[in-house]
Structures are given as structure tokens and as C-alpha cells.
Specification:
The complex is a heterodimer. In chain A, 53% of the residues lie in helices and 22% in strands. Chain A contains 14 helices and 13 strands.
């Protein structure tokens, strides 16, 4: 009861106080209104001045910031220019021998001779190999192998160029690991590429060949044979050092092992075709032609039978052989068709995805499509045989097309997954660009 | 003189002279006044102030309990109105446009005060409570009353002022504060209960009106 009474007392007092507050406000006189208006004008003027000052200071701040950025950019550019213009000279250390007049590399014992460069590159001549160090300067190094076998491990650098003369052949090296040999007596050249890329020029059928990781090039000048053998780099290395040739059947073996590495899908032998025996014979023949460098014979076969018929009836292996022959003969459109047919008819084989990316690159203007193929391959075979190459290619063409900034995330991803990969140096270079 | 009053406003702006508002300006509709504000006509500032400043000043003084603070709020409100005049979509709604600016500015001010009182650990009493027409004792009561209002949350206080002192309906209050009617009801009930309780606990305030009634 008391509470209710208190509440009503409080409410009554509240009503009275509210009324007091409401009624206590007196209307303004005209003089007070004018005074308020003057104060308002003064406030507007003050704020306007303050606003102008703020704008002015903001502009000054922006100009200072911009100048600082320009100065930094200029400093960074000039630094990179000078560093690009004047890379430090190459220096090297010799183990197991010395360099004589004319750059001749003479081994002091039976263990061969090894040269290690300050930039991380090194090469080693196997015992009995004759070679010369033609030149070493800030632009790179030039080495000649007159007879025998040498193993190279070259650190990639955009400022330096490594060239290896091997008998009558010239090997232009980017960041890479390879073993090369030249048998002067038999006129036999052999190069096994473990990592990276090399361009080989000389007396070979097409004049110039670009090799990728895992390929082996064998040229027998006496027989007039040029062969590119896929896969088995370790074995090729081991055998290449001995100068022995891989049997042609190696190609079939390597293809079979690649197919097994990739996710499920119909194997070539399961493809719809005529009789199994005839098919296998045909496959073997194209594989042999390809390995022997007789690419034109494959293309002639296709022309004879008709491209459409071949694409719809050839086995998976045949389509790969056709695509390879077309690529080596600079016919990217035909290679593209063959690989598309391969994809359509044998969707389980993922290698075609990667090769389609390569073909799109060589067709020109197909960068977006090439990236899309690489992405498909990486999505379906993240640990596949071509994953490092696909990611590296994607990074390279993204950088070329959209600049290093766009390629940075890919470069980071590449280094995370393949820190020792053949594109690692390129990835680091992309990340270094401001 | 008449020619100057009815003359070209652009010319007037060029010569940095402001026109004295004539009768024609006073009879301008709110919509035309709004359009003139958007066009940054010099006379529109003066006319807007004369037409709406009393409304804003009264509400601000009722809400804050201090005339100087109310004047400061009013100037800030009109400064913002002139700056943001272009955002007025419907010129017919100039009055409610100004009202919404006033309420927003008041809410900001109340929040600022509340924050300051928290930081200073003591409530801030209004220094100058209206008005010269009240006697000393009534002014003292009013000062204590505004001290209690300061203890309310800004939104509850605004709801209380708009409902009780500005005599707005639930819907109008909700519209101006951009809240639902049920929220207005809850805020109003909370503010009234708390104020009644606090007044009851203040023997000077609660007893005063009993005494007054007893004397009558």
C-alpha cells in the first residue's frame, strides 16, 4: 500500500516537473533570433575556412605521399636498373683439376673435374672428358665439351646466359639440370634433361629443338637419326653417362607408366578400334617413328587416312604420338585437334590437359585458354607427373600477360609445393619484383 | 530598395551582399524554401533559420534544460541542414528533415554527455536551467530534475521528452527516432518508472509537490 502511494507520489511529482520544464521555456525574442542567426553565419564561415584548410592540408599530404612514393619507386627502379646493368661478375672454384691457357680444363687425377660458380651453378666433367671454359663474365658463361660427358646444374638468372657447345651442337641453357655427352668418334650427341628447359641447335632435322624436363635427345649424325625419348630421367642419366642408347621400346614403357600414374580412365588398349593385334602393331610403329624423329611419316599416314577418320578411330597412344609429331613439326592446330580428340574419347587420361595448355601457348593469343587447361590438370591431378610444370607454366604466362603482381600468388604456391622445382628461381624473381 | 529586394539573387551573391528578407520570402512555401536551400540561395539560410529555429531551440532547451546548450545545438543543426540540403529528396518535407537533424544532433550530444559523465565519474548538472520567469526554488527543482534526466539512456530520454514535453504521438516519436512503436512504448515506460522512482527517492523533489498541494 505504501509502495503504491509512493509510486503515485513519484508519478505526480514527475508530471509536475515535466510540466514545469515544458512551460518554463520561453519563446525567443526577435533580437535573440537575429543574434542566433549571426552566430550561425559565423559558424558557417569558420567551418568553411576550416574545411578549406583541411582540403589544402589533405592535398599537401597527398602530394608529399605521392612524392615519397615516386622517390621510392625511382630509387627502386634505378637500383634494379643498375643491378641489372651491372650484375656481379661470375667467379668459380675448381676441384680436381685446373684451367690451362685457352680455357682448357685439365683434370689432375682420375676423378674428373668440377667447377662451382659463386651464383650457385656448377658443372662436372666425367673422367676422360675434354672440355674448355671459353668465357666467364657478368653476362654468363660459355663452356665447350669436345669429347665425353658433362653434368650441368645451372641456376636460373634473367641477367645471365649459359651456353654449352657440345661438338657441333649448341645448348642454350636456362635454369636447369642436365647431362650432356658427345662422342666424337661415333658422332653421337646425347642430352638428358632432368629439370628445366634447354634449346638445342645444330645439325638436327628441325634445326632447333626445345626440350622439357624428363626428355632425352639422342642424335646420331652417322646414321642421320634424331630421337626424343620421354621419361626415365634418372635411368637415362645413369645410362647416359656410359654413353649407351636406350632401346626404342623404352618409349612404350614410359608411356605405360605415365598412364598408370594418372587417375582412372580407359587404357589405350581398351579403346574401340579394329583388331587388338593390328592396333598394337600400329601403335608400336607410330611410337617408333616418333622416337626416331620420323614425324613426317606419322603426319603422312594421317593425311592418307584422313584427319577426321584418324581422330575418331586412333587409339589413345596414337593420338598422343600424332599430337607430339604435330607439335614437333610446328602444326599446333593439328596437335590441338588430336589432343581434343584424346580428351573426348579417353577422358581418364589427364596428360592431354597439360599438353593442351602447351599447345594453346604455342598457338599464340591463347593464354587464358592455356591457363584454363593447366588449372584443369592441376585440379584433377594435383600430384600428377606434370603438376610442377603446369603450375610453373601458368605462373610464367600469367606474369607475361598480367605482370608480376598477378603472378605473385601463383609463385608463392609454386615455391610452397616445389621449392626445388625448375621454376623456383623464376618464382623467386617474381616475388622480388616490387 | 524594392528593386534590390526583388532583384537578381545571382547579382547579389556576386557583390557579396545579402538581401534583407522581405514579405515575399516569409510567404515562401516550405517546398520552395527547400529548393532555394538546395540551390544555395543566400536568403534561404536566413529564412530557414527564422522559420524553424524557434522549433529546434524550444525542443533542444526542453531536452537539455539549458538555453546556451540549446543555442549551440540549434546552430549545429542548421549548419548540418545547409550542408546536407542536397540530400533532401522531397522538398515538401523540409520541416521533418530539419526535425530529424535536430533529433540526431541531440542524440549525439546526449551520448557525448553520458560518455563524459562516465569518464568524469560524476553526473554533469545543467549550469543554466531555464528560465528567468521561474523563482529560485523552482529553478533549483528543475535543475535537479534535469540531473535525473541525465541518468537516463539517451534514447529513453529523447522518447520521454518527445512524448511528454513535445506532446508527440507514439507513431510520430517512433518515426523521428527511427524505431518501432513498441520500442517507444518500452522506452517510455522505462523512463517514466525510473524517473518516478528517482524522484520518490529524492525527498526534496517528492515532498515539494505534496507541500504545494497541502498549501493549496
Amino acid at each position: 500500500m505504501t509502495t503504491t502511494c509512493d509510486e503515485s507520489r513519484g508519478s505526480r511529482a514527475l508530471a509536475s516537473l515535466t510540466e514545469l520544464g515544458r512551460g518554463g521555456v520561453q519563446p525567443l525574442t526577435p533580437a535573440e533570433l537575429d543574434q542566433g542567426l549571426n552566430a550561425l553565419h559565423a559558424r558557417i564561415a569558420t567551418r568553411r575556412v576550416r574545411h578549406r584548410q583541411m582540403v589544402r592540408w589533405s592535398l599537401v599530404g597527398a602530394a608529399v605521399l605521392l612524392s615519397t612514393l615516386v622517390v621510392f619507386q625511382f630509387a627502386s627502379l634505378s637500383r634494379s636498373y643498375w643491378s641489372a646493368a651491372e650484375p656481379p661478375a661470375l667467379a668459380y672454384q675448381i676441384e680436381g683439376g685446373n684451367v690451362l691457357e685457352g680455357g682448357y680444363l685439365r683434370a689432375s687425377g682420375d676423378g674428373g673435374i668440377k667447377l662451382a660458380f659463386n651464383e650457385g651453378s656448377e658443372f662436372e666433367l666425367t673422367p676422360g672428358t675434354r672440355g674448355r671454359l671459353r668465357s666467364v663474365d657478368e653476362a654468363g658463361a660459355r663452356v665447350a665439351i669436345e669429347n665425353g660427358t658433362a653434368h650441368f646444374q645451372v641456376t636460373h638468372s634473367s641477367n645471365r646466359r649459359w651456353v654449352v657447345e657440345v661438338g657441333p651442337f649448341l645448348v642454350a641453357v636456362k635454369g636447369t639440370v642436365f647431362t650432356v655427352s658427345w662422342d666424337q668418334q661415333r658422332e653421337r650427341f646425347e642430352l638428358s634433361l632432368q629439370r628445366g628447359r634447354v634449346d638445342v641447335s645444330g645439325p638436327i632435322s628441325d634445326g632447333n629443338l626445345a626440350l622439357r624436363a624428363g626428355q632425352r635427345l639422342v642424335v646420331d649424325l652417322a646414321k642421320g637419326e634424331t630421337r626424343i625419348i620421354e621419361g626415365l630421367p634418372e635411368r637415362a642419366l645413369a645410362e647416359g653417362a656410359g654413353g649407351t642408347d636406350l632401346p626404342v621400346a623404352t618409349r612404350s614403357t614410359s608411356r605405360a607408366s605415365e598412364a598408370a600414374d594418372e587417375p582412372s580412365g580407359p587404357t589405350p588398349s581398351a579403346s574401340p578400334s579394329t583388331s587388338k593385334g593390328a592396333k598394337a602393331k600400329h601403335e608400336r610403329r607410330w611410337a617408333e617413328e616418333l622416337a626416331s624423329g620420323n614425324w613426317d611419316r606419322i603426319l603422312e599416314d594421317v593425311e592418307r587416312a584422313g584427319v577426321g577418320v584418324t581422330l575418331s578411330s586412333a587409339s589413345s597412344e596414337e593420338l598422343f604420338a600424332l599430337a607430339d609429331a604435330a607439335r614437333y613439326r610446328r602444326r599446333p592446330e593439328l596437335a590441338h585437334e588430336a589432343l581434343l580428340a584424346q580428351r573426348r574419347r579417353f577422358p581418364g587420361s589427364l596428360r592431354a590437359l597439360f599438353l593442351l595448355g602447351r599447345v594453346e601457348e604455342s598457338r599464340g593469343g591463347g593464354i587464358a585458354r592455356a591457363i584454363a587447361w593447366y588449372d584443369q590438370y592441376l585440379a584433377r591431378a594435383p600430384a600428377g607427373a606434370y603438376a610442377a610444370e603446369a603450375l610453373g607454366r601458368k605462373m610464367t604466362i600469367t606474369s607475361k600477360a598480367g605482370g608480376p603482381a598477378k603472378a605473385r600468388p601463383i609463385a608463392r604456391g609454386y615455391l610452397r609445393r616445389f621449392p626445388q622445382g625448375s621454376y623456383a628461381a623464376s618464382a623467386r624473381a617474381i616475388l622480388r619484383v616490387p | 530598395m524594392a528593386a534590390r529586394e526583388c532583384g537578381d539573387d545571382t547579382a547579389a551573391r556576386r557583390s557579396h551582399l545579402s538581401l534583407v528578407v522581405g514579405r515575399d520570402r516569409r510567404s515562401t512555401t516550405d517546398a520552395d524554401l527547400a529548393r532555394a536551400l538546395v540551390a544555395r540561395e543566400a536568403w534561404a539560410i536566413t529564412e530557414t533559420w527564422h522559420r524553424f529555429a524557434p522549433m529546434v531551440l524550444t525542443m533542444a532547451e526542453r531536452c537539455l534544460g539549458s538555453k546556451p546548450d540549446a543555442e549551440d545545438i540549434a546552430q549545429e543543426v542548421f549548419y548540418r541542414v545547409f550542408r546536407k540540403a542536397k540530400t533532401l529528396r522531397n522538398p515538401d518535407c523540409l520541416r521533418s528533415f530539419i526535425y530529424s537533424f535536430a533529433i540526431r544532433t541531440l542524440r549525439t550530444e546526449l551520448r557525448r554527455r553520458r560518455l563524459r559523465s562516465w569518464l568524469m565519474f560524476e553526473p554533469e548538472l545543467p549550469s543554466d536551467v531555464a528560465t528567468s520567469t521561474l523563482d529560485v526554488e523552482a529553478r533549483d527543482h528543475l535543475r535537479r530534475f534535469y540531473g535525473l534526466l541525465d541518468r537516463l539512456k539517451p534514447r529513453d530520454r529523447l522518447v520521454f521528452v518527445l512524448r511528454r514535453m513535445e506532446s508527440m504521438t507514439m507513431e510520430e516519436t517512433a518515426g523521428h527516432l527511427d524505431i518501432s512503436v513498441s520500442t517507444v512504448k518500452r522506452s517510455m515506460a522505462r523512463a517514466s518508472n525510473r524517473l518516478s522512482r528517482w524522484i520518490e527517492a529524492d525527498s526534496g523533489l517528492a515532498g515539494l509537490f505534496d507541500g504545494e498541494r497541502g498549501e493549496r
